[in-house]
Design brief:
The complex is a heterodimer.
Chain A lengths: L1 H10 L3 H10 L6 H5 L6 H13 L3 E3 L8 E3 L3 H33 L9
Antiparallel strand pairs in A: 1-2
Chain B lengths: L4 E5 L3 E8 L3 H9 L1 H7 L6 E8 L6 E8 L4 E12 L3 E9 L7 E10 L2 E9 L3 H28 L1
Antiparallel strand pairs in B: 1-2, 2-8, 3-4, 4-5, 5-6, 6-7, 7-8
Helix pairs in contact in B: 1-2
Classes of the chains: A mainly alpha, B alpha+beta.
């Protein structure tokens, strides 16, 4: 399952792919609809969609000539797993260092001079 | 005074700096002594570290297990690579959520800075994509917000 998190991380490494996921969180969209807000070509969007599809973050269905995309049922779980890691890293650092400041203040009260 | 900075270097480095109002020996000790780590290295409020193994010598094991009141938990494992008390630590770590995250190699230095200590933590992620994902998801923003809050607290 290590490979699973790696794939999620790689898929999310690109800002366009994150924007696509944000758009799809609001509902299904066709490639044409996804191209509109981004100033990049349809083939480039299609390449991003392929990466997201292979990472299991989106699924596509066939609707005549279109292949609309939507978030995969497993996407929230995959993103939650990543969120847990990243949020812990970020908030953990903030809060931990505040706590360390307090601990150091107890160990070394201001004004105390340590002998070299 | 103790504002955290975070910047990237090259493709795979993340560098975090933080100043502490205590000498290097104290800050170093707080990073390797289990009884001290268990008091501060807890992440968000509400978490405890019931298991803390930290053996600061080359090859020595690291294992931190965190738990919250609802019984949720996860753990981190790692190994020390270089230990030069009280100024430098190099270790490798990974989180288990329960799947292990990519290995993060961390070099931490503690340098005397006036009557305090400047800590520089250099993380090396396996590749540019892993680092990009880690940063892009708002790690830097979140840390900055946290420290702005700390600034307000210290200005009161």
């Amino acid at each position: 399952m290590r490979a699973h998190l790696d794939t999620t991380l790689a898929a999310l490494a690109d800002p366009t792919r994150r924007a696509i996921l944000t758009r799809l969180a609001r509902g299904e969209a066709t490639v044409t609809e996804l191209v509109a807000p981004f100033s990049i070509s349809q083939p480039a969007i299609s390449r991003h969609l392929k990466v997201l599809e292979q990472a299991g973050l989106i699924v596509r269905r066939v609707d005549g000539a279109h292949r609309p995309c939507r978030l995969a049922p497993g996407a929230p779980a995959a993103l939650d797993e990543l969120d847990t890691y990243l949020a812990m890293l970020r908030k953990g650092m903030e809060r931990s260092y505040e706590r360390l400041d307090q601990l150091l203040a107890r160990m070394h009260p201001p004004g105390r001079k340590d002998k070299p | 005074m103790s504002k955290l900075t975070l910047r990237t270097e090259g493709d795979t480095f993340v560098v975090v700096t933080r100043r502490f109002a205590a000498p290097p020996a104290a800050v170093f000790a707080a990073h390797v002594e289990p009884a001290l780590l268990q008091q501060w290295c807890l992440g968000p409020d509400g978490w405890t570290m019931p298991v803390c193994i930290c053996d600061p010598r080359p090859g020595g094991a690291i294992r931190y297990e965190w738990q919250n009141a609802e019984g949720h938990g996860f753990h981190l494992t790692g190994e020390f690579v270089e230990v030069e008390a009280p100024h430098r630590l190099v270790h490798v770590e990974r989180m288990h959520l329960p799947d292990p995250t990519p290995d993060n190699r961390v070099e931490t230095t503690f340098t005397a800075d006036g009557d305090g200590t400047l800590m520089v933590m250099r993380m090396t992620l396996p590749d540019a994509e892993t680092r990009a994902a880690m940063l892009a998801t708002g790690m830097a923003d979140g840390m900055e917000v946290g420290y702005q809050r700390l600034d307000r607290m210290t200005q009161r």
